[in-house]
Amino acid sequence: MSTELTEAGDAGELGAFDIGRIMAALPHRYPMLLVDRVTRLTRDRSITAIKAVTINEQFFQGHFPGRPIMPGVLIVEAMAQAAGILAVESLGLAGSGKLVYFMAIDGAKFRKPVEPGVLLQLDVEFVQKRSSVCKFSGRATIDGQLAAEANFTAMIADPPQG
Length: 162
Description:
alpha+beta, 3-hydroxyacyl-[acyl-carrier-protein] dehydratase FabZ, HotDog_dom_sf, cytoplasm, (3R)-hydroxyacyl-[acyl-carrier-protein] dehydratase activity, EC 4.2.1.59
């Protein structure tokens, strides 16, 4: 059953989230948690989040020695985690243990290297929202300059039993 996207009013605006609320929405933990702050979330519509990229990130040890650059796949993962927060909050699933799994990544493009010392802004919006499958469009920017973009599809599922 598809949910039509409508113009969000003040009732859909959830504002900023600290790391505690992010961790309540996502199962990810260090070193895979790639969202440090949510600056704005409008339920059923969009999210703006921040990843503070520091030289202390594990991946910079090998990507690349002498020229540290955040791997593109992790930039897409950061956008996907922001999308996961948007989906969980929009569908009222925070604290439910539900997981958001990638199903597809389309049109990923990388425009600018992401280096240590930047705030990577993650802007993600719903393209289509259903109860168990959602489509998103994401952009990662640094100081307003496009670093990466992608469209992706995710499935909302129960956590594994065991």
